[in-house]
Design a protein that fits this description.
This protein has 865 residues and is of the alpha+beta class. The chain has six domains: 22-188, Jelly Rolls (Sandwich); 190-263, Immunoglobulin-like, CATH 2.60.40; 288-325 and 332-396, Immunoglobulin-like; 405-486, Immunoglobulins (Immunoglobulin-like), CATH 2.60.40.10; 561-646, Phosphorylase Kinase, domain 1 (2-Layer Sandwich); 657-864, Transferase(Phosphotransferase) domain 1 (Transferase(Phosphotransferase), domain 1, Orthogonal Bundle), CATH 1.10.510. A hairpin with a 3-residue loop joins strand 42 and strand 43 (718-721). The longest helix is centred in the last third of the chain and has 20 residues, at 679-698. It is rod-shaped. The structure holds 2-acetamido-2-deoxy-beta-D-glucopyranose (8 copies). Residues 232, 234, 240, 242-243 line the site of one 2-acetamido-2-deoxy-beta-D-glucopyranose.
Length: 865
């Protein structure tokens, strides 16, 4: 209300100042009030009679001449009036009264006039000239034309100015008049210090007629933005505002406050563009990622709530990336990098969305969207006030790592293999490094490392192909390959790779202890590899040192498992080791195929003992669906035979490998896996093994050689525990090995390796390794690690890493089995139910898509003891 009133008053004032004319008075009489000071007053009369111009308070005349007198000729002359300031016209204003001649008798006589005349004389010098005698020097301007007679009227006369001084003269020729006042003035367009257009209008003498353009200036702190500033001053002393050409605006940081420039209030800013001061925009609202993939992301947001006045809002995009620890120099100052592209652009965006392209995979990017308007830059420059922004962070999608670039050097004797990887695309876990000798593929070596270089045992003069691929949390990337031929030098010493810094003093000590551990299966396989197909010897002289055949026979007598040796027809050798072999045979009474285990003639006493122990244990067991069934035995004479159920797919390890199309020469299976295995198959294998082991554990039997190679596969993908050759019944809770035995180091827990202690808990450890074998579909555990190095590694806490394609959940079951403390490990019943639960779930625990079996490399290198 109050504001409106103020505005109204202001508008009124403005109107008045703009429309009011101003006159500069050159002469005003009487002056002061009621005193006419033309000094001396100069009435000039031809007759000199008293009826000419007479000064009382005013000048008056009433020379009503009679007929006999000549016509009156009365002059009243002014003082010399100086015209200054270049006025082009002056305005003579008189107040007077003339009486009606008709109101006099005889109508005032022959000469009576209802008017008088106005004359002027101009000169460059101040001079006095009597009109009576110098009438020719005077110019008649006009005669009065009163609007009414007998009353006081005002009349104006314009006199064009030609010289500097002017004399006025009133010529009365018979009127009866009173001259009340006289004013001589001229028009000026007035000084106007402030009008809304920020123009300062100086007082300007008005033109004689029409109007004239006047060059004007901007008020203080304003400047002429465009055009030549000019404005018309009209002859009547009025500025014609509508003729203003050009414009003025306030300097930066100020605004037009009713015609003058004032500093912006605090918190507001102004650019020098003639607008009002304004605030900077608030932050953009609701910044969102609407799309993200490995290399691009798209952002969208809403305009800020506060935008500022008389402006549009535009946006700058700032991009930072989170430097992850191992990014060294790739990530300087967290800048996004100059490769990143912004569509449509990075700065001064006038749309509410942007696409960032050419980003790195699996990197956390933080984007800030700054809202700006016309004053943002100024605010920053003046007060350091930064634009408000909305922020969002997003991780670009990851993928498998890129291909490493491989370098091979042989600076001296050693060959150094190194590599670089540009696109990690995720969290890098490790590198798989393989060297393949071109002329002998069996000399393939593989190692896993987190380092960026490796060394191999290589042979001089040979050509090797090195393959390196990286594994990150999304899986394994393509392999970088480099072929290299070693120099043909006699003594090329290649140091074996050091994996995880595992070789230490401790490992060396352990090595001496474990070096005797020879794993019989490995040997068996090595034999096959050499192409030695063992001969089938049905009877041969076997040396059983210190073994009482009597006691053996004793057992046999009581044996309900005794079979008739003659009813067994051997068909073929399924497998053969150093000291024993397995045949496929037919047992006539059952009319079925069976597996027959026997010892070779070079077998030692210990082998026979193991065999008999296995037999004894199996006799105590009732048949279990997941343990190989004992059919019978013939131990009354040489060679002793154990007859077992026959499983046509052979051992699980070979089965798994074959399922991937890899020929496993050790596999005894006659049938081949029908199709590739599913995740469910693998989980089901793990479950069946746990179930079989669960049974053995309740029977207090410690297997001591649980490994995929010792599981047999039957029809319908049934797994059964077999090879109880190393198994022992438990007397107390712990079986302590008293003699040196051939033990599978990579499947053994630390307590067995170091102290020879075996419990069900050590079977649990082995079960963890079997799970690893199963879910890697037959890879060899601890690739490239020698058996004698295992104990040292385990002591340092090393455990096999999670294969990329299996879930953390599944992996944690394995690592539970690998707890250092035996009592911290789970039990077989628990394992059964845990795996059962996974089986019943719909989740993916094993991602066989990620697992590319064709890239599989057989890591199965026999230990060089
Ligand atoms: C003067 O007076 C006469 C008679 O009274 C009248 O007729 C005439 O109109 C008057 N003249 C003026 C100009 O008033
Ligand atoms: C304007 O004044 C000039 C002289 O200054 C004169 O010649 C001209 O006739 C005047 N025009 C009008 C319309 O009065
Ligand atoms: C105003 O100024 C511009 C250039 O400064 C000029 O071209 C234009 O004729 C002017 N207009 C008037 C009415 O004086
Ligand atoms: C002011 O100037 C404009 C444009 O020259 C003109 O049309 C208008 O009549 C002028 N106003 C006055 C009061 O003379
Ligand atoms: C600029 O500010 C003045 C008062 O300071 C106000 O009257 C005027 O409407 C404002 N102009 C705009 C475009 O907001
Ligand atoms: C990227 O990852 C997110 C979340 O992980 C997912 O929703 C999105 O579909 C992925 N984008 C593409 C293109 O794969
Ligand atoms: C990511 O999305 C962008 C934009 O849609 C596309 O140009 C680019 O090829 C995509 N990149 C990948 C790796 O999918
Ligand atoms: C994307 O980045 C690569 C390097 O990382 C660069 O060579 C390429 O020119 C970039 N692409 C564009 C379109 O800028």
């Amino acid at each position: 209300m109050m504001d409106n009133l103020l505005v109204a008053v202001w508008i009124l004032l403005l109107f008045v100042t703009l429309t009011s004319t101003k006159q500069v008075i050159l002469e005003k009489q009487p002056f002061p009030e009621k005193t006419w000071v033309w000094s001396p007053s100069r009435p000039t009369t031809a007759s000199g009679g008293p009826r000419g111009w007479t000064k009382q308070t005013y000048y008056s005349t009433c020379d009503l001449s009679l007929d006999e007198f000549p016509q009156p000729n009365n002059w009243l002359r002014s003082d010399s009036i100086e015209i200054h300031s270049g006025a082009k016209t002056v305005l003579v204003t008189i107040e007077y009264r003339t009486f009606n001649c008709s109101s006099y008798s005889d109508k005032g006589g022959n000469y009576c006039k209802n008017y008088f005349d106005l004359y002027e004389h101009q000169s460059w010098q101040q001079s006095i000239l009597d009109p009576l005698t110098n009438k020719a020097s005077y110019i008649k301007i006009a005669k009065t034309a009163p609007s009414a007679l007998g009353i006081k009227v005002t009349q104006k006369f314009r006199v064009e100015v030609k010289k500097k001084y002017i004399l006025l003269a009133f010529h009365d020729q018979g009127s009866c008049s009173v001259l009340f006042s006289l004013t001589v003035s001229y028009f000026v367009c007035p000084e106007l210090p402030r009008i809304s257009s920020l123009v300062f209008l100086p007082q300007t003498t008005a033109p004689a007629n029409n109007s004239k353009p006047v060059e004007v200036n901007c008020v203080t702190n304003a400047f002429n933005k465009q055009g030549i500033l000019s404005l018309d001053c009209q002859s009547d002393g009025v500025w014609n505002i509508s003729t203003l050409n050009g414009s003025c605006i306030c300097r930066e940081g100020m605004e037009n406050a009713v015609g003058k420039c004032e500093d912006c209030p605090k918190g507001k800013y102004n650019d020098g563009n003639g607008f009002n001061c304004t605030v900077i925009p608030s932050a953009p609202e609701n910044v969102q990622v609407i799309f993200v993939n490995r290399s691009a992301l798209e952002l969208q947001w809403q305009p800020p709530v506060v935008t500022g006045d008389q402006t549009h809002v535009f946006y700058d995009v700032d991009c930072r990336k989170l430097c992850e620890d191992d990014d060294e120099n790739m990530c300087v100052n967290n800048a996004c990098g100059s490769d990143v592209i912004f569509i449509p652009k990075k700065d001064d965006l006038n749309v509410n969305h942007v696409i960032l392209g050419n980003l790195s995979s699996f990197v956390v990017y933080t984007m800030q969207i700054f809202a700006k308007n016309r004053v943002s830059e100024l605010a920053r420059r003046k007060d350091g006030t930064e634009a408000n922004f909305g922020e969002i962070s997003v991780r670009t999608n990851g993928s498998v790592p890129g291909k490493p670039e491989v370098f091979v050097k042989q600076p001296k004797t050693a060959v150094v293999l190194s590599w670089k990887i540009k696109d990690k695309n995720g969290i890098l876990k490790e590198y798989y490094v393989t060297s393949v000798r071109k002329d002998d593929l069996s000399k393939t070596q593989t190692l896993v490392t987190k380092k960026m270089e490796a060394q191999f045992d290589l042979k001089a003069g040979k050509t090797y192909e090195f393959q390196v691929f990286a594994i990150n949390n999304f899986g394994r990337g393509p392999a970088g390959v480099k072929t290299f031929t070693l120099r043909d030098e006699p003594n090329v010493t290649m140091y074996p790779s050091i994996i995880y810094g595992m070789v230490g003093l401790l490992a060396l000590c352990i090595a001496s202890f474990t070096s005797y551990i020879i794993y019989s299966r490995w040997n068996r396989r090595t034999n096959v590899n050499r192409g030695k197909i063992p001969k089938t010897k049905k009877s041969s002289a076997m040396v059983y040192e210190n073994v009482s055949m009597g006691s053996v026979a004793e057992r046999q007598k009581l044996d309900e498992f005794r079979l008739d040796r003659d009813q067994i027809t051997t068909m073929k050798v399924l497998g053969s080791g150093n000291f024993g072999q397995v045949f496929k045979a037919v047992y006539k009474p059952l009319k079925s195929e069976v597996a027959v285990k026997s010892l070779k003639d070079n077998a030692k006493k210990k082998d026979l003992q193991d065999m008999l122990t296995e037999l004894d244990l199996m006799k105590t067991m009732r048949p279990h669906p997941h343990v190989v069934k004992l059919i019978g035995c013939c131990i009354e004479k040489d060679p002793p035979l154990i007859v077992l159920e026959y499983l046509p797919y052979g051992d699980l390890l070979g089965y798994l490998r074959k399922s991937r199309g890899i020929e496993d020469p050790y596999n005894t299976g006659e049938k081949r896996p029908s199709s590739t295995l599913t995740e469910k198959d693998l989980l089901s294998f793990a479950w069946m093994i746990a179930d079989g082991m669960s049974y053995l554990s309740t029977m207090k039997i410690v297997h001591r050689d649980l490994a995929a190679r010792n599981i047999l596969v039957g029809d319908n993908k049934v797994c059964k525990i077999s090879d109880l050759g190393l198994a022992r019944g438990l007397e107390g809770d712990i079986y302590t090995r008293k003699s040196q035995a051939r033990l599978p180091a990579k499947w053994m827990p630390p307590e067995s390796l170091l102290y020879g202690k075996s419990t069900t808990m050590s079977d649990i450890w082995s079960y963890g390794i079997v799970m690893w074998e199963v879910f890697t579909i037959g890879e060899s555990p601890y690739p490239r690690v020698k058996s004698r190095e295992i104990a040292g590694l385990l002591q340092k806490g090393y455990r096999m890493p999670k294969p990329p394609h299996i879930s953390q959940e599944l992996y944690s079951i394995m690592t539970n089995c690998w707890e250092e403390q035996p009592k911290s490990r789970p039990t077989f019943p628990w394992l059964c139910s845990a795996i059962k639960r996974l089986l019943d779930d719909f989740k993916t625990y094993v991602n066989l898509e990620v697992y590319e079996s064709h890239d599989y490399i057989n890591f199965d290198v026999a230990d060089k003891e």
